[in-house]
Structures are given as C-alpha cells and as structure tokens.
Write a structure and sequence with these properties.
Order of helices and strands: HEEEEHH
Largest sheet: 4 strands, antiparallel
Strand content: 5-15%
Structural class: alpha+beta
Distance between the termini: 106 Å
Helix content: 40-55%
Radius of gyration: 39 Å
Number of strands: 4
Strand order of the largest sheet: 1-2-3-4
Length: 168
Amino acid sequence: MPRFTSPALSVLVVACMGVTAASASEEAAGRYTMTPTDGGFIRLDTQTGAVSMCANEDGTWACRALPDDQRSLQDRIARLEEENRSLKDENRRLEDVMGLNPGQPGDGTSQGAPGEAPPLAPPGQGFKLPSEKDLDQAFDYFEGIMKKFRERLKKLEQQEKKDGAVPL
C-alpha cells in the first residue's frame, strides 16, 4: 500500500477542494437571475422561485422579498376548497337528518340511521304537510308560551305599580 507524504496529501486535498469550489461557484452563478428596474434590480432565485427587489438605500444594497402572490393564491384556493368540502359534508349531513337525502338505492342510506325519525316524505316528493294532530300540538305549545308571556307581563306591571318605577 502506497504511503502518502505530507506534501502529496496536501496537493491532493487542494485539488479536490478546487474541483468542489468550482462546481459550487457554477451552481451559485446560475442560481439567481437579475433584471434591472427603475429602482434597482429584481432578483429571482431559480431554485426556490422566490422573488426579491434589490435597491440601493443610503449607499447600501439590500434585497427585500416580494410577496408571493402565486403561493398566497394557491393557499387561499386550498383553504376555500377545504371549506367547500366541509360545507358540502355539513349540507349532506343536514339533508340526511331532515330526510331530504334519499341516498342511492341499495346502499343502505335511504332509510336513515337506526333510531332516527323516518323521512318526512318519499324521495323526490318534497315535504309532507302536518296532520291535524300535529297542528293542534303546535298551537297548544304556542298557546302555553303566550300564557306564560302574559303572566310575566302582569307581574312586571304589578311591580311597576308597587315600586312606582318608570319603564324604560
């Protein structure tokens, strides 16, 4: 096995470093594209696509990143698509709860989940009108609410008369 002396090893190391430095400078030289503008230069990073505005401010050159409209638009589109998906899912869920989504024949979704109320009407026929019994129950409930409301008003009027307060 050959034995390298210190000068031979140094020459080999320097030669390798020179090749590495040359290839690195070639990569760095082609990384940015500069385009002159009125106030300085626009610098494009060809590896990342980032764009910067370089200007001479008080004798010092400085590059400031320009907003990436394309990336912000893509992010916004992705956010809106996700929101659209979630709203469609919520809409489908509410239609299922209301019995408006008949589902596909044979997929088991047309009857709803166990324990849920049956659909209000057969698929495609709209809402079913309430029966007389349903209307009577609704009016009885509303009548009870109105009685409680009148009782509360009477209590407030009695307190007003007793306290002598002026209503707002």
